[in-house]
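Worked example 3 (structure in, sequence out).
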């Protein structure tokens, strides 16, 4: 996993709590605005086959949120994010763009802490 999310000026620090992990439902997109450095940081997460996938909520074409025009951004089969601004399609598991020659979504590494919170970063051994 690359750490492109760290390049955002308002990127949260590793270990920051995103939300309680139980609010991320299977096959549903969950949108959040985290506060970091006194600015909002857009996050999108979903659960697919029990695993949580989390990305910066910014389409790489114009950096608009994927849900800019509609909150209905998961494909009918539940495996792809759809950009509501211009129709780009992204694989939920990898963030790869499937419809054009665009960059992938910026993945956020996440783990669940002992209190059941979804946190940014890598689980410490």
């Amino acid at each position: 996993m690359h750490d492109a999310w760290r390049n955002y000026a308002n990127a949260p620090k590793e270990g920051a709590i995103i939300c309680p992990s139980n609010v991320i439902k299977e096959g549903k997109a969950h949108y959040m605005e985290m506060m970091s450095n006194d600015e909002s940081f857009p996050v999108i997460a979903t659960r697919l086959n029990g695993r949580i996938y989390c990305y910066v909520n910014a389409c790489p074409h114009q950096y608009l949120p994927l849900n800019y025009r509609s909150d209905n951004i998961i494909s009918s089969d539940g495996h792809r994010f759809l950009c509501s601004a211009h129709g780009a399609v992204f694989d939920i598991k990898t963030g790869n763009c499937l419809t054009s020659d665009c960059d992938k979504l910026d993945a956020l590494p996440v783990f669940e802490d002992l209190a059941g919170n979804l946190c940014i970063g890598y689980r410490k051994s």
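Notes: DSSP finds no helices and eight strands in the chain. The two ends are 18 Å apart (CA to CA).
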